[in-house]
Amino acid sequence: MVHKEIQGISLLELADKYDTPLYIYDTQVIKQRYFALHEALSPIPHKIKYACKALSNIHILRLLSDWKCGLDCVSPNEISLGIMANFSQEEIIFTPNSVAFNEIEEAYKQNVLINIDSTTTLEKFGKNYPKGKCSLRFNPDITAGANSSIQTGHRFSKFGIAKDQLDDVVKIVRKYSLEITGIHIHTGSGISQPHIFVQILNTLSALSTKFPHLQFVDIGGGFKVAYREGDAFISIEALAQQIVPAMQNLNSNYGKTLELWCEPGKYLVSDCGYLLVTVNQIKQNGERIFAGVNSGQNHLIRPMLYDAYHKITNLSNPHGDKRVYDIVGYICEEDTFARQRQVEEIHEGDVLCIHNAGAYGYSMSSNYNSRCRPAEVMIHEGKDILIRKRETLQDLLRGQNFTIQ
Ligand code: LLP
């Protein structure tokens, strides 16, 4: 079905008003997801830390901070954005990977909890901040996630401290009297089976006995959302049904009630987002009909990078008969949004809607081919609000040095 309106506002009218390509976010979806997750986890003490790498527009962050969400950050700039969006430092967890130690120092000074993911970083942390507090990211040796590029918990992944280094970790912790307040595992993105999170909790439970000062365990993000009709996705209720008892077991094993933390990105913001594009050209090459649009891998790279499926509908011809197209971008690469896809009959000038564009859409966009990034509009409480202007040539020139002759 073609989704034509959000909160009573016509998507086609938005395309007209703001022009395309255009990112649109429906805040009602984010709100519904956020509070549904709280509700599902209500039998146990818990915190939700939004993985802001998924969509980091400050206006979206502000909403989540108004709702008392916490934040999962991976760079100092994400921390700064979070603070600017009114997240208190205590609600931010910083989980960097392969970063210079000065980033850790910067975060520590800001009073943000640092989630350390290597023994050498832990050693430096201990030297610099004896008796300091931090959490630890472990590699659970679990392979889970929608595709190999986004699986981060297997033993050949760069992420986390391998479980077999536990003794070394404990030695460092003792040597510097560190206070380990949490232990963390994130195995990957796009996980549809709740039992993976039970496996994570069981692994955390086994690790927890080595750390007497824990306040929380963190199961990361990765809750799968549906990208196509009939797609497997994680039901938050089914997830809670399995993880609440697993968490209770962990607590009785540990002898104290710990908080459960989780870090959803896609679950909160994937299907709140739409990318509207205009068809520049219909072209036939051999048997294939190409619908070429005014966007490409520079705006939404997921289909090209991961072969990810994004539903596409024709807003300009919602009742048209379906025909088969290759929907392609305008970048000088084989940037294809969808191959051999049935879409309502497309004409030049039609506006297409690419669904599930909220997570890892704008945040992974680029200026490749010296193209500008789209504008972002959020639909909030029945109003459309421009939350980021479309880029211009000036944005591409910013920072380039014009003093060189
Ligand atoms: N926590 C940590 C430590 C993470 O690394 C991530 C995502 C998340 C939470 C949130 O995962 P989510 O709930 O969004 O699945 N660009 C890829 C996804 C990469 C995810 C990176 N880490 C994609 O578009 O599929």
Give a description of the structure.
The protein has 405 residues and is of the alpha/beta class. The chain folds into two domains: 5-24 and 272-396, Lyase, Ornithine Decarboxylase, Chain A, domain 1, CATH 2.40.37.10; 43-265, Alanine racemase (TIM Barrel), CATH 3.20.20. 29% of the residues lie in helices and 25% in strands. The structure holds ligand LLP. Ligand LLP binds at residues 51, 54, 72, 95, 150, 186, 189, 220-223, 263-267, 302, 306, 359-360.
Describe the structure concisely for a colleague.
The chain has 405 residues and is an alpha/beta fold.
Bound chemical compounds: ligand LLP
> Structural class from helices and strands?
alpha/beta
Largest sheet, in brief, is: 9 strands, mixed
Rg is: 23 Å
Mean pLDDT: 96
Give me some keywords for this one:
405 residues; Diaminopimelate decarboxylase; globular; alpha/beta; pyridoxal phosphate; 2 domains; 12 helices; binds ligand LLP; TIM Barrel; Lyase, Ornithine Decarboxylase, Chain A, domain 1; EC 4.1.1.20
